[in-house]
Amino acid sequence: MNTELNIPNHVAIILDGNRRWAKKRGMKPQEGHYKGFTNLENLADYVFSKGVKVLSVYAFSTENFSRAKDEVDYLMDLFAVAFKKYFEKQNKKNVKIVFSGRREPLPEKVLKMIDEITEKTKDNTGPIFNICVNYGGRPEIVDTTKKICEMVKNGEISIDDIDEDLFTKNLYQDLPAIDLMIRTSGELRLSNFLLWQNAYAEFYFPEIEFPGFDEKEFDKALEVFDKRNRRFGGQ
Fold first, then answer.
1. Which of 9, 83, 207, 227 is most buried as measured by Cβ atoms within 10 A of its Cβ?
2. Neighbours of 77 (CB within 10 A)
3. Distance (Å, rounded) from C-alpha 42 to C-alpha 40?
4. Most distant CA pair in the chain: distance in Å?
5. In this model, does residue 220 exceed pLDDT 50?
6. Which of the residues 9, 64, 91, 124 is marked catalytic?
7. Is 39 a catalytic residue?
8. Rounded CA gap, 33 and 63, in Å?
9. Among residues 133, 130, 164, 132, which one has the least CA distance to residue 148?
10. Is 64 a catalytic residue?
């Protein structure tokens, strides 16, 4: 592969298709989620090795709580146990791990994991891994608006201070804009994912479900991104 490719600074991935991957193989949805998690373990390391500085993944949306209780419970256990072990490994690699999303109604065991990993990795100076759990793009914009309104109310800022930069800095995480947004499994929508941050992102929608989205598939995404002409609204 051409080593001179234009590498995106911030990549976002909607981890879609775990359940469909499992269904095609006669497995339970939980088995698809676990396969997706093990794939993410390998893929994240590869993404960072290519020079990507920030990786954001859609691990669990606010709407996902409407799924069957046994599936939601399994995912919460996965976050609390398997993800914690994985993040400990990332900490040793100097990866800074942050989380985006609302805390309510996440169970205490997940909140404990989030707080522990955030604290342990806060001073790491390597790539940033942004995990979106109980996340929604519209809720984030609403929460940010409320936060800024409180700042105005408390006299910390004036209305005239509000601009796009200030809004960005008060999102769940102050991260650079997304350059490449990938959604696996062939669905052609954002599903409420990082709406503000995706304003000028290049979109890539491979047909393959996430458990099969490996290093070779990511290389294909980089090749597509390299061919895009990013004008940011200009000529």
1. 83
2. 15
3. 5
4. 59
5. yes
6. 64
7. no
8. 16
9. 164
10. yes
Averaged pLDDT for residues 229-234 = 67
Q: What is the pLDDT of residues 5-17, one digit of tens each?
A: 999 999 999 999 9
Contact call for residues 205 and 183 (beta carbons, < 8 A): yes
The radius of gyration computed from the CA coordinates of the chain, to the nearest angstrom, equals 18
For residues 35 and 22, the answer to whether their CB atoms sit within 8 Å is: yes
The pair of structure tokens assigned to 86 is: 């994985």
DSSP H stretches of helix in 78-182: 84-92, 108-121, 137-153, 164-169
pTM score of the predicted model: 0.94
Q: How confident is the model at residue 83 (pLDDT cuts 50, 70, 90)?
A: confident
Q: What angle do CA 76, 77, 82 make, to 5 degrees?
A: 115
Handedness of CA 11, 14, 19, 21 (dihedral sign): negative
Q: Is the pLDDT of residue 108 over 50?
A: yes
167-192 pLDDT tens trace: 999 999 999 999 999 999 999 999 99
Is the Cβ–Cβ distance between 223 and 5 less than 8 Å? yes
Q: Check pLDDT > 60 for residue 3.
A: no
What is residue 233's predicted lDDT score, i.e. its pLDDT?
A: 63
How far apart are alpha carbons 66 and 103 in whole angstroms?
Answer: 16
Among 98, 153, 94, 155, which Cα is nearest to 125's? 94
> In sequence order, what E strands does the chain have?
10-14, 54-61, 96-100, 128-135, 180-183, 202-204
Residue written as tokens 């700042």?
Answer: 151
- Edge-first strand order for the sheet with 128-135 is 96-100, 128-135, 54-61, 10-14, 180-183, 202-204
